[in-house]
Input
Amino acid sequence: MKPETMSLFEQEMRDQVASAREALILANSKGDALLVMAAQAHLDGLVDLARRNGVDVSAPAPLTA
Output
């Protein structure tokens, strides 16, 4: 999907979910169980918000020129 055809909300949700996924990976690498739980809860909340608003964030959207 071309970036200009995505709504601002969809773009922001994709960016937020991508950042939350990176934070979860970082938390896992640190081995801190509480940090992992917080990062996972944050990611789950963002994914839920996106789904409730019709944005599929299960996989990154391929960008085409």
